């Protein structure tokens, strides 16, 4: 088989109006998560389009996953275009959920407004622009190369913004990312059209609770303040743990620069009497707090072992316990993700890099995300390592007011995706 003379990126560019319209249509379905609105609608809309184009379309509800209910069912769409000829399968996976709108918008967050080369709306860059680009890329490729070998899959999945358990994790459990079935995965998250995201750092969330004894606030010596014990924990973190984390630096190409170090955020702190509801005009009660809790969000590097990450925190608490009278604590683990990083020599990386060079005339940057995304499930549950994030849009705009995606960025990245299909499903390898 030979490549056609007409450049595939030009054929993609000729579909710009269709690409913009599809992106707008996706934005106009407000798939807010939480709680998980209109998932079925967006799956139906995309599924109908692809079915009309000859794709096999399945709608899969992630029954009994977190958040799934008859009111808010977790629907996913998986479409497959099988050439009927033996070959590999390339899968484009996008999450269809978006985060809350928040304040500060000057545009209609669900209007899909097109203005001066940008499409605005919640989810425009994260990641309905990328989803639309992958659909257009696949459609243009199939039209240009009906003789291709192998198969293309496009999925639109639920709940990435809340962990992906009702989306990619569920599909991975069903075997949908088994390397026997799928060989290459591209997740069109908004990493910029000239960057290939190889993976992400790891995560460990835990709740630390300190214990004390309740007493009257006028006689605190009769009690034992859990808040003061927590103060000792925070002081020890400042003195030893934060400097230790800042001294660890990864060889992973993490962006932004600050995320090359290990990090820890204290998400919340609660202790003593709970805050009164707005409008309550009474005074607080004088009570020594007997419980104090913080939630920590530790992000770790591929060079770190998760057991060591946990041991650092437990070791710090034991050190305090050894010197501080009556110090009692408990650690409750909440969530963990192991770092994931695809090799730069992996086939989907090499193919995407070559395509970026052809479309944009420069070599890509390789990056690693500070936070996780659905690649974790494809790697850990699906056992598929040949996976990247690549898509249009500027990551900093994600979750912001007046979120937008550039039309030219969508066109260019769709051109790249189409060339990847040409490389993997046509060119001799
Ligand atoms: Zn996203």
Automatic annotation (TrEMBL):
Cross-referenced InterPro entries: ArgE/DapE, ArgE/DapE_CS, Peptidase_M20, Peptidase_M20_dimer, Peptidase_M20A
Superkingdom of this protein's organism: Bacteria
Pfam families xrefs: M20_dimer, Peptidase_M20
Associated pathway: Amino-acid biosynthesis; L-lysine biosynthesis via DAP pathway; LL-2,6-diaminopimelate from (S)-tetrahydrodipicolinate (succinylase route): step 3/3
Key word Hydrolase present: yes
Gene source species: Maritimibacter dapengensis
Cofactor: Co(2+); Zn(2+)
The protein's name in its UniProt record: Probable succinyl-diaminopimelate desuccinylase
EC code(s) of this entry: 3.5.1.18
Entry annotated with the keyword Lipid metabolism: no
């Amino acid at each position: 088989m030979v490549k056609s003379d007409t450049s595939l990126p030009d054929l993609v560019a000729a579909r710009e109006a269709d690409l913009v319209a599809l992106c707008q249509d996706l934005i106009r379905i407000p798939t807010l998560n939480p709680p998980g609105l209109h998932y079925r609608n967006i799956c139906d809309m995309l599924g109908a389009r692809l079915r009309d184009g000859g794709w096999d379309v399945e709608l899969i509800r992630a029954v009994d996953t977190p958040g799934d209910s008859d009111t808010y069912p977790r629907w996913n769409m998986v479409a497959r275009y099988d050439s009927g000829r033996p070959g590999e399968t390339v899968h484009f996976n996008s999450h269809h959920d978006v985060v809350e709108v928040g304040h500060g918008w000057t545009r209609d967050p669900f209007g899909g407004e097109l203005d001066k080369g940008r499409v605005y709306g919640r989810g425009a860059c994260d990641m309905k622009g990328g989803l639309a680009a992958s659909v257009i890329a696949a459609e243009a490729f199939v039209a240009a190369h009906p003789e291709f070998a192998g198969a293309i899959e496009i999925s639109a999945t639920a709940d990435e913004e809340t962990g992906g358990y009702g989306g990619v994790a569920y599909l991975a459990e069903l075997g949908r990312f088994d390397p026997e079935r799928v060989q290459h995965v591209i997740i069109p998250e908004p990493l910029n059209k000239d960057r290939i995201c190889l993976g992400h750092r790891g995560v460990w969330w835990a709740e630390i609770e300190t214990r004390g004894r309740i007493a009257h606030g006028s006689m605190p010596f009769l009690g034992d303040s859990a808040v003061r014990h927590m103060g000792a924990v925070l002081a020890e973190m400042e003195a030893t743990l934060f400097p230790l984390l800042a001294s660890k630096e990864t060889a992973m190409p993490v962006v932004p620069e600050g995320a090359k170090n290990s990090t820890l955020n204290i998400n919340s702190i609660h202790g003593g009497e709970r805050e009164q509801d707005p409008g309550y005009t009474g005074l607080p009660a004088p009570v020594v707090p007997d419980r104090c809790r913080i939630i920590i969000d530790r992000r770790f590097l591929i060079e770190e072992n998760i057991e060591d990450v946990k041991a650092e925190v437990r070791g710090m608490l034991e050190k305090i316990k050894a010197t501080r009278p009556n110090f009692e604590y408990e650690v409750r683990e909440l969530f963990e993700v192991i770092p994931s990083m695809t090799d730069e020599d992996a086939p989907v990386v090499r193919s995407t890099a070559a395509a970026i060079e052809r479309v944009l005339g420069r070599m890509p940057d390789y990056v690693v995300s500070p936070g996780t995304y659905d690649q974790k499930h494809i790697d850990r549950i699906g056992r598929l390592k040949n996976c990247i994030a690549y898509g249009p849009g500027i990551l900093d705009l994600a979750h912001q007011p007046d979120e937008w995606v550039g039309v030219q960025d969508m066109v260019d990245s769709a051109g790249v995706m189409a060339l990847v299909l040409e490389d993997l499903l046509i060119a001799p390898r």
